[in-house]
Amino acid sequence: MSSKQPLLTASLDNEGQLVLLRLSPQFEGHVPLALLSSLPDFVAEGLADFFSGTDPVLLRIRCSLSCLTPWQQQIIRTLAGIPRGKVTDYAGLAALAGHPGAARAAGSACAANPLPLIFPCHRIVHANGDPGAYMHQPSHPLKKRLLEMEEIEFSSNGRIPREYFL
Q1: 84-106 confidence digits (pLDDT tens)
Q2: From CA 91, how far away is CA 101, in angstroms rounded?
Q3: CA-CA to 48 of 20 to 30 Å: which in 21, 56, 57, 139?
Q4: Is 121 part of the annotated catalytic residue set?
Q5: Domains, the chain, ranges and CATH?
């Protein structure tokens, strides 16, 4: 017997801030209108912005990263500075956050990201252009789909060419 998991769930704290956005492994990057209508208005509007090609800046204002350590929060907030259509590797993310040499720790912070579409950890890839894992799953098809939505093209070997790196 299998239970049907929702494609997308959102959790708010007592102040009405978004604290968790969970994506089902079956989520492929398409958000049905009925799904958006089941979410709080500000979350639905932010996700609609994201999927229409605009970064969800206003949604970020209503997010809480309080479940993370201050260091993890710094790394996650740094993700917001990576523009659509660009990627960086874990060493690049660590350097952008002011912690050169902390690539592995930056990767661990990305793995703890409770708001993956809002703070876009899908824009972090391996130094060789391999997309890498997403949402604790190696080679998650959603990561590739999100990058393609941002007009990032993949080479024939499935890697991201250097021209897309910051």
Answers
A1: 999 999 999 999 999 999 999 99
A2: 7
A3: 139
A4: yes
A5: 8-61 (no CATH), 70-164 (1.10.10.10)
In the three-class reduction of DSSP (H, G, I as helix; E, B as strand; rest coil), residue 115 is classed as: coil
Handedness of CA 53, 58, 59, 61 (dihedral sign): positive
- Tokens 């801030």 belong to which residue? 17
Q: Report the SS3 class of residue 130.
A: coil
As given in the structure block, the two tokens for residue 45 are: 């509007």
Let me know: does 8 contact 35? Beta carbons within 8 Å: yes
Q: Report the C-alpha gap between 159 and 144 in whole angstroms.
A: 10
Q: Which is the catalytic residue, given 63, 67, 110, 121? A: 121
H helices of 22-96, in order, are 33-37, 41-51, 57-61, 70-79, 90-96
